[in-house]
Amino acid sequence: MHKCTSCNPTELFYKILISGENNLAHLPQLQSYLKSNDLLVNTHENIIVVRETAVAGLYDYFSDLMEIQYIYFKVDGGEWNPINEVIELLEIKWIDQVILKNNIIFHIQPIVTGRQEVFAYEMLARFRDDDGNSVAPYEVFKAAKKRNRTYALDRVCRMTAVRNAAAIREKVFINFIPTSIYSPEHCLRTTVQLATQLGIPFSQLVFEVVETESVDDIEHLKKILTYYRERGLHYALDDVGEGFSTIEVLEQLMPNYMKLDMKFVQGVSDDPTKQAAAKKFLTAALQVGAIPLAEGIEKWADFEWLKEVGYELFQGYLFGKPSPIPAVLAKK
């Protein structure tokens, strides 16, 4: 079962489990206080449900008057966690504003042919907080996962990327996190509709499966990619050679593009082990009709070797670093 999270962040409700003889003795007084201040949403035996706005004050109350080792919390059907971990969740509430205010810009990195001509651009999300400070993508996605906002973040990134694609007018690779999508028909419909509204040919869009999250349910991923394929959209597998992207999975998913992980690319020109791996994945890609793409190229010798053995597309600092979309291409 793939749990749906909201397209847009909404207020979180916390279930708090109170146990321990001393703690339970304080419970009636606590419930009375919460009710009188309109902070209590629900209560059942030794479990109280409160709005997030009440949690910070409650933590202080627990710390002063109760034994916090006997108190646990969970959010939106998640797992029970020790109450002393709640502060971290409150501190990353900023991710909600990143999503709601769409504090996202995109950089693009070229993907080139063997003749070093631009074939496409990969669109890479960059984030800012309310003060305009840059926030590392890794921190953004980590915060989104902890607050159960992964789908909301993935969706706003996809939609923003599609809007930028209308301005770029070149083929673009757009990342998405498959584990955030519980139902392709529901979760991806708005993306397809937006592309149609903007008049973007589906052939211009390549959706790239990234491994920000580990994909264990291959059948679910196949369902997502089938949804794309049936609508004429192309898709790529990123970081092939790592995680779930084994040759067997490559054969099951039959992507339009296969992106060889950079650990097999960098230094491949003089490393027999990497050469063997690069050739193995190249053969597998060609067998399923996928265009082989090598990413992370920084040295000319590696580019020449990969081109010689049959790789068709290339990406890396050798051809260009991620950079802001040029003003002439930016959407007015």
Your description of this structure?
This protein is an alpha/beta fold. The protein has 2 domains: 79 residues, Alpha-Beta Plaits, CATH 3.30.70; 231 residues, TIM Barrel (Alpha-Beta Barrel). It is 39% helix and 23% strand. It has 12 helices and 15 strands. Strands 6-7-9-10-11-12-13-14 form an 8-stranded mixed barrel, surrounded by 4 helices. A 5-stranded antiparallel beta sheet has the order 2-3-1-4-5, covered by helices on one side. Helix 5 crosses helix 6 and helix 6 packs parallel to helix 8. The chain is elongated and about 75 Å long. The N terminus is likely disordered.
Overall form: elongated
Q: Quick one: CATH class of the largest domain?
A: Alpha Beta
Measured as a percent range, the helix fraction is 25-40%
Individual helix count: 12
The CATH superfamily of the largest domain is identified as EAL domain
Which class do the helix and strand fractions yield? alpha/beta
Q: If you consult CATH, what is the topology of the largest domain?
A: TIM Barrel
